[in-house]
């Protein structure tokens, strides 16, 4: 495997259930990493979606149902 070069793109799958694919565009390659915390996000485009929206909604309703049953 070679090191990434400017202009390269690659992707990875984050959530195997929801099939969230992320594309990474290589815009710069430096010899040494600058000081600070890495990796870090250089730019965001758009709003990030909730990670598990269906489970959050189901969890709220499930708690109400359990209260009604006395569980």
Strand-helix topology:
Elements: E1 9-13, E2 21-25, H1 53-69
Antiparallel strand pairs: 1-2
Task: Give an overview of the whole structure.
With 71 residues, this protein is an alpha+beta fold. The chain has a domain of 30 residues. It is built from 1 helix and 2 strands; from the N terminus they run ββα. The protein has a two-stranded antiparallel ribbon with strand order 1-2.
Compact summary:
With 71 residues, the chain is of the alpha+beta class. It is built from one helix and two strands, in the order ββα.
Principal-axes geometry comes out as: extended
The share of residues in helices is: 10-25%
Number of alpha- plus pi-helical segments = 1
For the biggest β-sheet, the strand order reads 1-2
Q: Proportion of β residues?
A: 5-15%
State the end-to-end distance. Answer: 55 Å
Average pLDDT: 77
Q: How many strands in all? A: 2
Helix/strand order: EEH
| Secondary-structure class | alpha+beta
Largest sheet: 2 strands, antiparallel
Q: Uncertain regions: pLDDT < 50 for 5+ in a row?
A: none
* Computed CA radius of gyration, to the nearest angstrom: 20 Å
List keywords for this structure.
alpha+beta; extended; two-stranded antiparallel sheet; 71 residues; 1 helix
